[in-house]
Amino acid sequence: MAAMRGLSNLSEETFSAEKKEEYLKILKSADPTLEDIQVEFNEKKVEKHALDSDDLENRAVILKSVRVDVKSTHSIYDKHKAVDRSELPFLQIESNGTIKLLDILPTIFDALSTGNILIVDEIENGLHPTVVKKMIELFYNPETNPYNAQLICTTHNILLINEAVQRDEVWLMDKNEYGESSMKHISDIPGLRSYDKLGQKMIEGAFGAMPNIITNTQ
Questions:
Q1: 34: nearest Cα among 83, 63, 88, 74
Q2: 9-13, 24-28, 124-128, 168-172: range with highest mean pLDDT
Q3: Is the pLDDT of residue 119 over 70?
Q4: What is the pLDDT of residues 139-167, one digit of tens each?
Q5: β-sheet bridge partners, residue 51
Q6: 117-134: b or e for each residue (b if 16 or more CB lie within 10 Å)?
Q7: Percentage of the chain lying above the pLDDT 70 cut
Q8: Which residues contact 132 (CB under 8 A, 6 or more apart)?
Q9: DSSP state for residue 99 in the 8-state scheme
Q10: How far, in Å, CA of 46 to CA of 72, rounded?
Q11: pLDDT in tens, 57-87
């Protein structure tokens, strides 16, 4: 994930011209004025770091530091008509959510291209629900997921449970007063009807898995 408004997953290998076009399709859903992004990878000087004297071969470790510089091109509108374009420093003007999105996209598309399992904790953090929904839909679409990659994620966003995933793929996690966690498959809950809104049921506490809010009334 993006940390301190930086990019940890972006590299020359993950930012080819073909992959950039795929990233832009998702990024534009977060920033509609975005037209293009340009990424430069600047490698700082190479240093040698000697290992311990116990190393019989007296080898040295080569240290490299790569700085990622991202610029984005945006449309400028006048009375709802595009009249010009402007190049801006991506990491300075974009929101934390959009920066995080650019950072996680290489990991998502790597999983899709290899058929791997991707695990994301709290996938909705910093991202608009519709953007997260688009990310999840990539795994349902056989064109974008030809090798049956699997996404496993945790979320507190009930909109995703209502609209983005199939209900037989939802598990609920609950924690009791002793700190013990338990999971249950939503299809195992008795009395659940096909037309029930899962998110609304969760808010009402029908499935448990609700935090106990302690208030001081004194």
A1: 74
A2: 24-28
A3: yes
A4: 999 999 999 999 999 888 777 776 667 77
A5: none
A6: ebebeebbebbebebbbb
A7: 74
A8: 123, 124, 155, 157, 160, 164
A9: H
A10: 29
A11: 555 555 566 678 899 999 999 999 999 999 9
- The token duo for 173 is 């996690």
List alpha helices for 69-212, DSSP H: 90-93, 96-114, 129-140, 158-159, 198-203
Distances (CA, A) of 156 to 15, 81, 112: 31, 38, 24
Q: Are 161 and 199 in contact (CB under 8 A)?
A: yes
| Nearest Cα to Cα of residue 115 among 143, 147, 146 | 147
Beta bridge partners of 76: 84
pTM, to two decimals: 0.73
The pLDDT score that the predictor gives to residue 163 is 67
For the chain, how many residues are written?
218
Q: Which domains does the chain have, with CATH numbers?
A: 17-165 (3.40.50)
Beta bridge partners of 81: 78
Cα–Cα nearest to 175, from 212, 140, 206: 212
